[in-house]
Amino acid sequence: MKTKTGVRGGIGQSVRRVDGVPKVKGEFEYASDLRRDGMLWGETVRSPHPHARIKAIDIRAALESPGVRAVLLAGDVPGKKTYGLDAQDQPVLAWDVVRFAGEPVALVAAEQPEQAKQAATKIVVDYEVLSPVTEMEAALQADAPKLHPQGNVVRQLRVIHGDPEAEAEVWVEGTYETGMQDQAPLGPEAGLAVPAEDGGVDLYIATQWLHADLEQIAPCLNLPPEKVRLNLSGVGGAFGAREDVSMQIHACMLALRTQRPVKIAYGRQESFYGHVHRHPSRIWMRHGATRDGKLINVQAKLLVDGGAYTSTSPAVIGNATTFAAGPYAVPNARLEGTAVFTNNPPCGAMRGFGAVQACFAYEAQMDKLARAVNLHPIEVRLKNALKTGDVLPTGQRVTGAAPVRDLLSRCAALPMPPAESPLDRDRMLIPGGAGNVGHGEALTRGVGFAAGYKNLAYSEGFDDSSEAWVRLSVDQEGPLAEVKTAAVDVGQGLDTIVTQVVRTELGVQRVLVRQPDTAIGSAGSSSASRQTMMTGGAVQLACQAVRDEVLRRAGTSIIPDPLDEYLRPPIEATRVFRHRRTGKLDADGQGDPHVSFAFGAARAVVEVDTELGLVRVVQLAVSQDVGRALNPQSVRGQIEGGSAQGLGLALMEEIELKDGKIRNASFTDYLLPTILDMPPVVSDLVEEPEPGLPYGAKGVGEPSTVVVPAAIVAALRAATGRELPRAPVKPDELVGIR
Amino acid sequence: MLRLPPLRYLRPTSVEAAAEAVAEHPGAMLIAGGTDLVPNLKRRQFDAPVLVSLRGIAGFDGIQGEPGRGMVIGAGATLDQVATHPALQTAYRALAQAAGFVSTPQIRHMGTIGGNLLVDPRCNYYNQSAAWRQAVGYCLKRDGDICLVARSSPRCWAVSSSDSAPVALALGAELTLRGAEGERRGAAADLYRDDGIVYTTKRADDVIVGIHLPAAPAMTSAYWKLRRRGSFDFPVLGAAVALDWADGMVRVARGALGAAGSRPVEVSHLLTPLVGRRPDDELIAQVAEAAEKPARPLDNTDFSHYWRKRMTRVLIERALRDACGLDPLAGRLTAQTRSGQAA
Ligand SMILES: Cc1cc2nc3c(=O)[nH]c(=O)nc-3n(C[C@H](O)[C@H](O)[C@H](O)COP(=O)(O)OP(=O)(O)OC[C@H]3O[C@@H](n4cnc5c(N)ncnc54)[C@H](O)[C@@H]3O)c2cc1C
Ligand code: SF4
């Protein structure tokens, strides 16, 4: 396509973020900043027990508490009592049984937040405490208490490929675990519900997917969808945490009951209880290969803990299982995945969505295989690397770009950090140096590699289309393009990409991205690395329709300059973008489940103080298959952020549970990597345009998170010679305690 | 979000008035930077119907003297002031290090050295919101009648998590306290009790006014702090050592461990083999192995307590070598790890 000369900031350029300056200056309005005159504050009463029967709830004292305007229980839910993204099995408010510690049981609205909190403490819930099921294996025992009518299996699937009994010359085997990670978006859940004159409600909310929220909220409120209007408020990060409904229905219920605006804003602790987490996993794998390292057969059994409710567990275990053989050509496989219900907090979407856990296991296996056949880790991967035209274990043929070989060799060739003497360096560059517990003693270095992949957009037959409206008009300052979609900029930079697309397609400098709401059609979720391709695609189509009208009015074949006279009346167009259809899996896990894939490779260089078990990641190098970088700086930002979350999972981030209760629901105890823990990230963008996607651009948000944990732990194994089957790796394991 | 309970806030302008205000209001507490107290109050770890601020007192943050004569540090000096003060970079270096390793720059600009000496002992079962503690059934330290870490224990084992407390012991610091009934001065070591609940010997109305560091022109000192990340985290173990020298020989050796018990744990008596000697690799390693004994970490902080116990000797060896100016790479324990790896 032609970009009119003189228009700056089209696609392919590192355009500065449209939301950047307001965010840095503190002028950006996040959902927690929402305010309305006369608004009430909502508070949620949550179960302290992971498993209990509610015998009675006494709200009398709470109702009489100062400032209280409403106290609501399950019986007050106006419509459907449950919600959920997949199965609607999660109670809006629990009525008979609570299935996890932190489950909402009652709501309070009061004039002041303190009054709401005071009143909440006066609600007396009489629980009959039941013994919780907190271990995955225990949940699958025949005599385990059934947490749901259908039992404790959320989804079980298997993928049978080729001859799963095929013999091999070399076998390697292992069992791997990953912990429960929190998305920890810096903006906790918040929203404001405002009752409307038509008996409906307007909800201002930070979310990832307005329409999926709407579909779950309206039935619970017993309102037709058109009476529930969602307006996007400022989103402070998401990473999957805002995919499920949190306080949306609660705020609307309180607003409808009191006929006053009601705000609910979680603090950090409540945020830990209020959203789903990354599934903890236990994965057994057995890889068979020829003596020279060519894969013949991959066997895998994957178990992930879905916690108390379904959420997106079916899709997560679907991903983990179908990706369990990794980005490798594997002729034979038996991959079995199970997501289970327990009384742990519910798990669902988090950046990497099942692919992270699988990669941690299959890449550890690839390293074991490399050792068994005496090959360099890169060699064994190159030997088996997937390429376009290969068939995946599901029988799906990879039709798009699959530059796995390229990624691996490029990543391995990225500049290594220089060797450093332990003594003459800045203390901050020594493991534990910032606390003065290391001056260079007992250091060893290790290098580890990992390759992995992840699907883009929704899978298994899901049609997650996106709609965009574009209007081109003229005012005193000249042409102005306005865009509206329901797509959420969660912080990833979508509004900037949309602006770039419009500039490129229409040759207009001034672009205004309107605030998303549900007045327009769904844009699908800001997840699964899909918005740039889906909403970018919809905006591109709408722009093309507008451009056609400009050309028709002008009678030219290129956009005329100046354009102004052709824009009276303004031109508008609305278009929908759909990805190609995918299909469900059959009983043997065969089908065409995924739209497209993004691949990545990472190299980690670590340094371990082998006496203390403290770690410094010296450098991360990531080569990523991006199709085409529409905004290279944003792509690199995604790779760095994704790497930081991967480092967190590898080394420190874990929700610790004791009998189903979160022990570390605060940033003092749930440890996120700080800038001092993050090494320089060398990012390398491999651009092989993907056929069928707008501009050939692939989603870029997730691959680094998929590969970095595996690469870091591989490097730790190389440094210490220890097994390290579990992430996050603790210092105890690095020094051999346990 | 977690919010403060309703309370009265008083801001007297003299130490005497502050002490009297606390004495007058039952349950009142002193507040300096508030960086420990406020988060704890928000989690309802204790009640304080009245807070008496020390921030209105002029001259409460002075730092005077130098190692040759001894120094006095006003309790209201911020951690940042202590970390960066030029006179604290030599003999008393361990104190500047301890202050500089606390949390983040923001906290170091708010938090004071006096408040740091009095950090409320921490425990995974205690530094939690009221709702969480209710869910696990409360514990001795607040509202309950058992210790959830050591169920049969009659006492609380919450962990002294102050970075400066072990250093104050190692440096032989004294404190002046001013209460409603007058002023007194005593060893910093006497401030602490080995109890996670009643962790000091001071009365509620006693204001720490100053920290006195004895004259020690020839002293060397070091503080080593173990934690998971490069910043932010409370110590899971701290080692403070101070060696006073005469003619190249150790004249006095003092040391204390942080986060190894409910009070800073003295190890000076275990360092006496160094006295009168010119410490070498072997001697330091022997001393370090012996000096880990009094550390009794329990499973109530980040990391496993086995690991914390095992790391004690490593930290002491490294800190002593640091204070002696020895090559960090030549330590004997380090050498053992090395050869263990090679094997
Ligand atoms: C995220 C975070 C991380 C932290 N990390 C660390 C860490 O790594 N190491 C560490 O040691 N601390 C840490 N802290 C705790 C705290 O910030 C510091 O200990 C700080 O020095 C406390 O000083 P303050 O002036 O804020 O004390 P305050 O919070 O005001 O008071 C603490 C206690 O001391 C009492 N008090 C204060 N001043 C006096 C005085 N002059 N006389 C008598 N009583 C007094 C108060 O009554 C209260 O009981 C951390 C805090 C946070 C929030
Ligand atoms: S050590 Fe025991 S009594 Fe003390 S705070 Fe922890 S659980 Fe409570």
Folded structure, characterized:
The complex is a heterodimer of chains A (738) and B (343). Chain A has 738 residues and is of the alpha+beta class. Helix content of chain A is 24%, strand content 25%. Among the domains of chain A are: 20-29 and 465-577, Aldehyde oxidase/xanthine dehydrogenase, molybdopterin binding domain (Aldehyde Oxidoreductase, domain 4, 2-Layer Sandwich), CATH 3.30.365; 34-131 and 188-235 and 242-274, Aldehyde Oxidoreductase, domain 3 (Alpha-Beta Complex), CATH 3.90.1170. In chain A, helix 9 (355-372) crosses helix 10 (377-384). The radius of gyration of chain B is 20 Å and the shape is globular. Chain B has a single domain (1-220, 243-265), classed as Uridine Diphospho-n-acetylenolpyruvylglucosamine Reductase, domain 3. In chain B, helix 9 (281-291) packs antiparallel against helix 10. Classes of the chains: A alpha+beta (738), B alpha+beta (343). Iron/sulfur cluster is lined by residues 123, 125-126, 139-141, 147-149, 156-158, 196, 300 of chain B. Flavin-adenine dinucleotide binds next to strand 2, helix 2, helix 5, helix 6 and strand 8 of chain B.
Q: How are the elements arranged and paired?
A:
The complex is a heterodimer of chains A (738) and B (343).
Chain A: H1 20-25, E1 40-46, E2 52-58, H2 60-63, E3 68-72, E4 82-83, E5 90-91, E6 97-98, E7 104-110, H3 113-121, E8 124-129, H4 136-140, E9 153-161, E10 170-178, E11 190-195, E12 201-205, H5 210-221, E13 228-232, H6 248-258, E14 262-265, H7 268-274, E15 281-289, E16 295-307, H8 313-322, E17 332-341, H9 355-372, H10 377-384, H11 404-413, E18 443-456, E19 466-475, E20 478-485, H12 494-506, E21 511-513, H13 531-554, E22 571-577, E23 596-609, E24 614-625, H14 632-651, E25 657-658, E26 661-662, E27 681-686, H15 703-720, E28 726-727, H16 731-734
Parallel strand pairs in A: 1-14, 10-28, 12-13, 16-17, 20-21, 24-27
Antiparallel strand pairs in A: 1-7, 2-6, 2-8, 3-7, 4-5, 9-17, 10-15, 11-12, 11-14, 15-16, 18-23, 19-20, 19-22, 23-24, 25-26
Chain B: E1 8-10, H1 15-24, E2 29-31, H2 37-42, E3 50-53, E4 63-66, E5 70-74, H3 79-84, H4 93-100, H5 105-110, H6 113-117, H7 130-136, H8 164-170, E6 174-179, E7 182-187, E8 207-213, E9 219-226, E10 237-246, E11 249-258, E12 265-266, H9 281-291, H10 305-324, H11 332-342
Parallel strand pairs in B: 1-3, 2-3
Antiparallel strand pairs in B: 4-5, 5-8, 6-7, 6-8, 9-10, 10-11, 11-12
Helix pairs in contact in B: 9-10
The complex binds flavin-adenine dinucleotide and iron/sulfur cluster.
Flavin-adenine dinucleotide binds next to strand 2, helix 2, helix 5, helix 6 and strand 8 of chain B.
